[in-house]
Amino acid sequence: MLTKSIHKAAFGLAVGLSVSLPVVAQTDAEKAIDRYRELVADGNPAELWEAKGEDLWKKKRGPKNASLEKCDLGLGPGVVKGAYVSLPRYFDDVKKVQDLETRIVTCMDQHQGIKAKAAVYDRDDHKDVISLVAWIASESRGMPVNVPQSHPEEKRMYEVGKRVFFYRAGPYDFACATCHAADNTRIRLQGLPNLTNNEPAGKAFTSWPAYRVSNSQLWPMQKRLEDCFRQQRFPYVEFGSDVTIALSSYMGVTGKGVKSLAPTIKR
Amino acid sequence: MKKSTLIIAGLSFVLTGCATMYSAAELDKMAKEAVEKSFVEKGIAKKERINQDAINLACTSAELSKTPLSGEATRKLEAAEYQAIKYPADGKFLGDWKAGERVAQGGGGSTYSDSASAPNGGNCYNCHQISKEEISHGTLGPSLYNFGKLRGNSEAVVKYTWGKIYNAKAFNACTNMPRFGHQGILTEGQMKDLMALLLDPASPVNK
Question: In terms of domains, do A92 and A189 share one?
Fold first, then answer.
């Protein structure tokens, strides 16, 4: 499992983060942080989730005693390679746009008869969803982001996502755009990607799932967005809700063509 | 000349029109509905937090469309915010700069994982350089180092600085800075301490 490409991808991310900081002389603290990023990039524990996810995909489970090998992630039954970089997309069987996490829940139901409880991060069936996400994402590593915009619902979700991105509210008047619509800005020493631009949007979009060193957890995009809204001082954004799918669509479409990094490692 | 302008106008309508089957106004409504549907109350974060007041609505729409607010709209919105500024009842604006430094350092409070009794931090260093000693500072806002040294502490400067902390939108409608007094994020005492951090000649900010 431990491949050179993982090292390269994660190291590339660390370098990418450091060069996105403003062009000023690096302080000792910033140098130390870059060194730390290099160190943690050497071996990503996300591999543990990837291995479990591959197992879960192939294992017969649930009331139907079936694997997920016929699950359609958008590129046809059983096609995993390239699926991560082309989601969210519209699925005719459920008549809506789904991201990877919500699609996995649908597949567990359709193929295995598992009515997944996935509303709470890392609880119940969501543990399995996280592992599956890690493996499926890893199968698209290095592939260009290609979130489709051919179905009217996909276009609508992009447009809704763009509006949600700029939506200012809450006691602090924050929108996603407050921190993510300008180049070369930071909160404390943390560089902030400008998600309205192609390259940073694509990098951010494919940075999740990520293994987070600070809490030893694997965070998929749904959890990343939920915690952004928590820090925005918004109410709780529900798993798989329209806002989360719409924001993923906005980021993915904006980040078109950028080569996928996930799963990555973060502080 | 006129004809070609019309053609260009028509073409740009078609180009934006074919993005989706819906008008911009319909999409605005759908986005609002998505927000209504997607968030639920949790802990201290009540559902009503997703509601927008007039200034947030206007700034969202300006940023989304990349069309700055008109001068008149800006003046109207800023005036309404300015009129709601409350100054300290006892007329004293400056507290303790050391306590102010702690408020400036704090970034917690008001999330759904915080308790109602947890005091809010000022989040100041998240976006601003303030004292030279703290190197871990953000860059979303301007540097406030030497704030008082550069401006003095005349009555006008003191009143302006209070207003800016209390409600930055009174001076810059679509600023990214939270309205610390107006929204009840910081107490009057915390804001006085921040005032001292910025304006007290003894504060490290003014060294």
Answer: no
Domain with residue A231: its CATH number is 1.10.760.10
User: What ranges in chain A are assigned the alpha helix state H?
Assistant: 4-19, 28-40, 46-58, 100-107, 126-138, 152-165, 176-180, 198-205, 221-231, 242-254
Q: What's the domain range around A255? A: 152-266
B22 neighbourhood in chain A, CB within 8 Å:
156, 159
User: Least CA distance to B43: which residue of chain A?
Assistant: A235
**Helix, coil or strand: residue A192:** strand
Strand partners, A237: B39
H or E element at residue B63: helix B54-65
ipTM entry: 0.90
Average pLDDT, chain A: 90
Q: Is A49:A130 a contact under the CB 8 Å cutoff?
A: yes
For residue A88, list chain B residues with Cβ-Cβ distance below 8 A: none
Contact A235 B178 (CB under 8 A): no
- Residue A191 and residue A133 in one domain: no
| Residue A257 token pair | 């063509």
- CB contact under 8 Å between A164 and B64, yes or no, is no
- Candidates A207, A206, A202, A208; CA nearest to A254 is A202
Subunit contact B35:A188, Cβ cutoff 8 A: no
Q: What is the pLDDT of residue A35?
A: 76
Query: Average pLDDT for consecutive 10-residue bins of chain B (207 residues)?
Result: 46 50 95 98 98 98 96 98 97 98 97 95 98 96 98 96 98 98 98 98 97
Closest to A250 in 3D by CA, of A188, A190, A175:
A175
Q: Where residue A30 falls among pLDDT bands split at 50, 70, 90?
A: low
**Distance between start and end Cα atoms, chain B:** 63
Of A237 and A31, the structure prediction assigns the larger pLDDT to A237
CA distances from A265 to A3, A54, B106, B135 (A): 15, 19, 27, 25
**Residues of chain B contacting residue A235, judged by C-beta atoms under 8 Å apart:** 39-42, 45-47, 49-50, 112
Instruction: Give the whole-angstrom CA distance, residue A10 versus residue A2.
Output: 12
Q: Which residue has the tokens 């350089």?
A: B129
- Minimal CA–CA distance to A265: which of A14, A97, A81, A8? A14
CB within 8 Å: B50 and A169: yes
Looking at the structure of chain A, the number of domains it has is 3
